[in-house]
Design goal:
This protein is α/β, with parallel strands linked by helices and 280 residues long. It contains ten helices and ten strands. The longest helix has 15 residues.
Amino acid sequence: MINNLKNTVTLNNGVKMPWLGLGVFRVEDSPNLVDSVKTAIKNGYRSIDGAAIYGNEVSMGKGIAEGMKAAGISRENLFITSKVWNADLGYESTIKAYETSLKKLGLDYLDLYLIHWPVEGKYKDAWRALEYLYKQGRVKAIGVSNFQVHHLENLMKDAEIKPMINQVEFHPRLTQEKVRAFCKENDIQVEAWSPLMVGKLLDNEILKEIAHNHNKSIAQIILRWDIQNGVITIPKSTKVGRIIENSQIFDFELTNEEVEKINFLNQDLRVGPDPDNFDF
């Protein structure tokens, strides 16, 4: 049983990544974000997930620095992720984007760097840049985000290094079974963004019943479901109480029947863009 906030999963290159992290999507570059990241780290979070396009890497970096100081930990204890945006996909431009993200974050390296979206005709050059950064020891792990099976197959035909992570939209209404099956077969770890479906599942009666049975919130039930499905999860919140609550999912376990009930809620319903029809 995964029973601790600091529990990790071992990626296909041997790097260990926490099962739970804090996402910072759609949080303004502001003192509020600094405080959120600091609060998360102070309360035991060790993984923070950001991206260049979020426009908040400066505050994210300040929060990391203040959080390390507050928690009395060093950089090596954290797992920091960023992503290269579509406009920067390309070999040289991806390397430049990486350096820009590092500077904004105030860091010497990232633990994970991802291609944010599979822009046709561009993501292979970007992947070569990620391979270069990885081989140079500038980043601990590399991966992709929002890649469907055909994107992964196409990438891996020419890749020297297999992605370690595929971060995708994943929640009870979108269980991504084909993507997850392919990733499992190829030892690529799946990670969830928008695990709570931007709050659209909080009135679901099945989830309410399961939450009542465990004396937990619906959000906690969904995050626990993620982990029991072998999916890393990075819920976003700027509220201290919610950040702490989201981390309190390691003192209970869903039954197999409960997991299946939640799995059955799938409708292949997205709240974010479709990777095959995204207007880049």
